[in-house]
Amino acid sequence: MALATAYEVHDNLLIIRLEGELDHHEADKLRKEWQWWLKEKRKRHVLLELSGLDFMDSSGLGVVLGRYKEIQANEGMLMISGVSSEVDRLFELSGLKKLLPFAVTEEEALQKFGVMI
Amino acid sequence: MKNRMTLTFDSRSENESLARVTVSGFMAPLDPTMEEMMDVKTVVSEAVTNAIIHGYDSEDGKDIELHCAYENDELVIVISDNGSGIEDVEMAKEPLYTSKPELERSGMGFTIMENFMDHVLVTSSPGNGTRVELRKKMVAKDRVCH
């Protein structure tokens, strides 16, 4: 199964919804699209919504970590919601769990963003 | 209960999902839990990605071999390439270490393999390719027909 990406914008918040499988094969395209939104469209904050993601490996961690650094450098915030228990183990192992705010659902994430940005 | 299979495929990133699907199908008779299935798919993805990116420097047209076998509850997976090999396997296994930071590699591949599997054996030397052997025992469940 491939990766489907959907982008939605609320002011300076970009919501990225991923569905399917995020591996090395899919990671390049996601990185390029994500960077376009950050650089060309100047979106500062990002919510990465993963409830439709069936599979992720360390290539996905690389993309998230890379964008985290770019968003951080621009004084923005990256939040992740809808993480499955399997994907959660990868975030835990990589230490990203300590770096980023996580929300259980998209609604919870948007509420948190409402407070924080 | 005993079975084995070997698949050789081209070093193209499209084949990462092929390798995952193949292994899931092969291990289905072991009646794995969803977590065991995901663990195995993840480590296969890591090892095949390593073979493509590091072994063959992202060059396609090269061979990657996926060998799977099980005997009773133990699944053994061997992923081998004939690529450049690893100079220092211990360093490569260090969490967050990557030889290709420019490709946004997280350096978590071997850490994930070691966490998700019972045994990981990496055999490699410069110029002689890499062989990754991954072993996992499936947790015994109440099986109906044994």
TrEMBL record, chain A:
Record PROSITE patterns: STAS
Classification via Pfam families: STAS
Cross-referenced InterPro entries: Anti-sigma_ant, Anti-sigma_F_ant, STAS_dom, STAS_dom_sf
GO molecular function: anti-sigma factor antagonist activity; antisigma factor binding
Superkingdom field: Bacteria
GO biological process, one term: sporulation resulting in formation of a cellular spore
Domain annotation STAS: ranges: 3-113
Keywords per UniProt: Phosphoprotein, Sporulation
Family: Belongs to the anti-sigma-factor antagonist family.
Function: In the phosphorylated form it could act as an anti-anti-sigma factor that counteracts SpoIIAB and thus releases sigma f from inhibition.
Name under which the protein is recorded: Anti-sigma F factor antagonist
From TrEMBL, chain B:
MF terms (GO), sorted A to Z: ATP binding; protein serine kinase activity; protein serine/threonine kinase activity; sigma factor antagonist activity
Enzyme class (EC, first level): transferase
Catalytic activity: L-threonyl-[protein] + ATP = O-phospho-L-threonyl-[protein] + ADP + H(+); L-seryl-[protein] + ATP = O-phospho-L-seryl-[protein] + ADP + H(+)
Protein name per UniProt: Anti-sigma F factor
PANTHER family in alphabetical order: ANTI-SIGMA-F FACTOR RSBW (PTHR35526:SF3), ANTI-SIGMA-F FACTOR RSBW-RELATED (PTHR35526)
Keywords recorded for this protein, A-Z: ATP-binding, Kinase, Nucleotide-binding, Serine/threonine-protein kinase, Sporulation, Transferase
Function: Binds to sigma F and blocks its ability to form an RNA polymerase holoenzyme (E-sigma F). Phosphorylates SpoIIAA on a serine residue. This phosphorylation may enable SpoIIAA to act as an anti-anti-sigma factor that counteracts SpoIIAB and thus releases sigma F from inhibition.
GO annotation (BP), single: negative regulation of sporulation resulting in formation of a cellular spore
EC assignment: 2.7.11.1
Alphabetical list of InterPro entries matching this protein: Anti-sigma-factor_SerPK, Anti-sigma_F, HATPase_C_sf, HATPase_dom
Signal peptide span: none
Keyword DNA repair appears in the UniProt entry: no
UniProt cross-references to Pfam families, sorted A to Z: HATPase_c_2 (PF13581)
Similarity section: Belongs to the anti-sigma-factor family.
UniProt KW Nucleotide-binding keyword: yes
Entries under SUPFAM superfamilies matching the protein: ATPase domain of HSP90 chaperone/DNA topoisomerase II/histidine kinase
Location of the Histidine kinase/HSP90-like ATPase domain: 35-140
